[in-house]
Amino acid sequence: MRPEEMAKRVDAFLRAHVDEEFGAGQRRFFREEVETYGVRTADVKELVKEVAREVKGWPAEQRDALMERLWKTEKLEPGVVVCHVYRRFAKRCGAREFELFERWIGRYVKNWAHADGVASWLVAACLENEPELRFRLVEWAGSGNRWMRRCAAVGLLQEAKAGRHTEFVLQMAERLLADRDDMVEKGVGWMLKEAYPAKPREVVSFLVEKGRAASRTTLRYAAEKMTAEDRARVLGVGAEKAR
User: Fold this and answer.
1) 3-state SS assignment for residue 214
2) Terminal CA-CA length for the chain
3) What is the C-alpha to C-alpha distance for residues 215 and 130, in angstroms, rounded to an integer?
4) Could you tell me the CA-to-CA distances from 201 to 159, 206, 212 in Å, in that order?
5) What does the alpha-carbon distance between residue 21 and residue 9 come to, in Å, rounded to a whole number?
6) Please, what is the Cα angle at 194 between 190 and 195, to 5 degrees?
7) Are 148 and 140 in contact (CB under 8 A)?
8) Residue 171 CB: number of other CB atoms within 10 A?
């Protein structure tokens, strides 16, 4: 089956499973405007399995052509399908795929669900397979695109969680601490929250030293997994700043 034929099958499946009430709820759920078919999660998961079975043996170029067609719909569910299907190819993700995902973020990502799917699963897979790619996130942190900046943090979630390259994770956090876009604030806080269990001393020391530049939102997210003592120290930084 060719990419254009599979894209039509995806569209037909989604149109056949529209739930208008669910779609209205989705549109209320996102703060930014989101185009959606209104298809429930269980049905989307069924579609993911079907697409994954079809593309499993496709050449990478053919698979990527399908993903591009799905992104171009500018709707929520096709982007979700892309993220879930491509996640199954995580072990193959490297520099070539990193450039592909970077292009997707710049062109097609317009909400946090797509941003987090691409960054926390796909970009993260690239970094695990080829760790030197993490240095390319520095440019993302200075982008005028809010989703690129969020992905600069969220793409490091798995590195942070595993306790890998903690110095770089904290350097990226420092680059983004003063960003007052709420999607970026939450992304940085999330990254620090995941870094804490593996490297608690390093994360707390960083926030005590640098946290005055952070928003209350970032500090609150970062402190979610901390001990009561560490949480008090970190949130105290925000309290000092407010005085």
Assistant:
1) coil
2) 63
3) 32
4) 17, 8, 18
5) 23
6) 115
7) yes
8) 13
* Residues 90/121, Cβ–Cβ less than 8 Å: yes
* H helix intervals, 130-227: 137-141, 146-154, 157-162, 166-176, 182-195, 200-210, 216-222
Evaluate whether 116 touches 136 at the Cβ level (below 8 Å): no
d(CA 181, CA 190): 14
Residue 129: what residue type?
N
Task: Identify the bridge partners of residue 39 per DSSP, sorted by sequence position.
Answer: 18
Residues 6 or more apart from 50 whose CB is under 8 A from it? 9, 13
pTM: 0.95
- Note the pLDDT tens digit of each residue in 148-192: 999 999 999 999 999 999 999 999 999 999 999 999 999 999 999
Q: Which amino acid, one-letter code, is at 114? A: H
Tokens of 108: 């097609």
Nearby residues of 114 by Cβ (< 8 Å), 6 or more positions away: 76, 79, 80, 83, 108, 147
Residues 6+ apart with CB under 8 A from 27: 33, 34, 36
Residue indicated by tokens 């450039």: 99
Tokens at 110, concatenated:
């317009």
Q: Please tell me the distance from the alpha carbon of residue 87 to that of residue 95, in angstroms, as a whole number.
A: 16
pLDDT tens digits along 35-72: 999 999 999 999 999 999 999 999 999 999 999 999 99
Q: Which residues pair with 18 in a beta bridge?
A: 39
